[in-house]
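Researcher: Please generate the 3D structure of the following complex. Treat every line as part of one assembly.
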Amino acid sequence: MDLKRYLDVKRKIVENAMDRYLPSEKTEPRTIHKAMRYSVFAGGKRLRPILSMASFELVNGKGKSILPAACALEFLHTYSLIHDDLPCMDNDDLRRGKPTLHKIFGEGMAVLAGDALHALAFEILLKAKNSQVIEEVAKSIGTKGMIGGQVADLEAEGKRVTPSKVAYIHSHKTGALIRASIRVGAILGGANGKKLNALSRFGEKIGLAFQITDDILDVEGEEKVIGKKTHADERKATYPKTVGLERSKRIAKELIKSAKNDLRGFGKKRTIFEELADYIVSRVN
Amino acid sequence: MDLKRYLDVKRKIVENAMDRYLPSEKTEPRTIHKAMRYSVFAGGKRLRPILSMASFELVNGKGKSILPAACALEFLHTYSLIHDDLPCMDNDDLRRGKPTLHKIFGEGMAVLAGDALHALAFEILLKAKNSQVIEEVAKSIGTKGMIGGQVADLEAEGKRVTPSKVAYIHSHKTGALIRASIRVGAILGGANGKKLNALSRFGEKIGLAFQITDDILDVEGEEKVIGKKTHADERKATYPKTVGLERSKRIAKELIKSAKNDLRGFGKKRTIFEELADYIVSRVN
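Model: Done. Output below.
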């Protein structure tokens, strides 16, 4: 199966499952369920759930036991985007080519819809029946993970930052949840310690490369293709701003090369994972 | 032990434990940990953790295994207050006699500090090693619990609402987490189904009575004693506005009376719980 087809198939599986886990638009209070669904189904690559499923399969996990965790990861990602887009944070009007949630439902409802997806994610995560997985996810989105990165990002606005600071921001803001997605798949698939470690290193590298690519797309990408405003990061700590555009591209490519090396012990099945890694830096949106 | 002493002793136990569970102010990124601590230690009655501990003891739970859940409940309550106080929600400048978090740390950091306490609560809750408890809590703060009530509250602003609507708002916005606190204590203390049901009914009633009392204090209380602006609820759906002040007081008292009836099967130990119920409606802040 080629990568595009693979991504399509997995995306549909995840979207169907999310549809089942989310309360319907007719469930009271309707507004919040409409708001949650608006953001969850506004599009998106579903990268985190797909990575968790790919990782699960790579270590020979069987069946559908990965699905609840996969959906929970996407709910958490969506909650973080909703809050990130708020006027008091990044103040973005457009996401995935559509008005951001607060533009349609108001800021108060956007705060609550983010909170609700956050809570729902943990409710769904329980279906994985694995406390290590819940702990992994909770830590990855806390102050030593995603939120830590968001705080540093907010504080770096308009300031000159060092390359190590921007690496910290990126590997936490974006990397932590991507790494956790891969680890969650591996844990639920029954990976041994050695494989879990190798996949964690892989996850760290592609997570960082993913955010560097986001920064590059903000400079070079097309608004219509990306679905959000470009040149929106000019006051933010980005790789292109800190080390230059060419060096940023080189770093992203080197990270992917090194990440692929981490997969050496995984046999033939690793092909799809290598392609996923290449996709991270070659994507146009 | 009289009630005041009991509340003081329990409050100190909870506050010491929360201090241990919260990252220190010197842990990076410092700002978010300072912000989380600012709100958590700005005061508060610690009613939810105390109810969970009281319930745990009432069903003969032994040892300290209730403590992580007790702290998690207070972290969740604090997160909800931080988000509730935001300009896009209730727009409150004062909470517990101190400036609200966003007044000191800015709105973006307040959103993130709430999010971080939300995530930390689930991390700590895992220490209870009981998935029923995590599910109970996750549901109580979701769209069919606390957030559902907040949404209805937000939507009712400036509108005439029916008594049944305001009952829905209160029993969800405030009641759900109070009920969950009591249930969590009972579950971890090993209550049987009959006792758990009785305590659930008790929790529902005192949760609703608690919020009605809040509404009454907004009309009749003193700003200095309550620590927040009074007459702040004039555009909101409240009991006094919907059924009048005197009837609100009567309803609150009847709820407490009926709640105490639910405790009949619990023997002598129930005294402290009865006093807690009385305190809910007689408190001045």
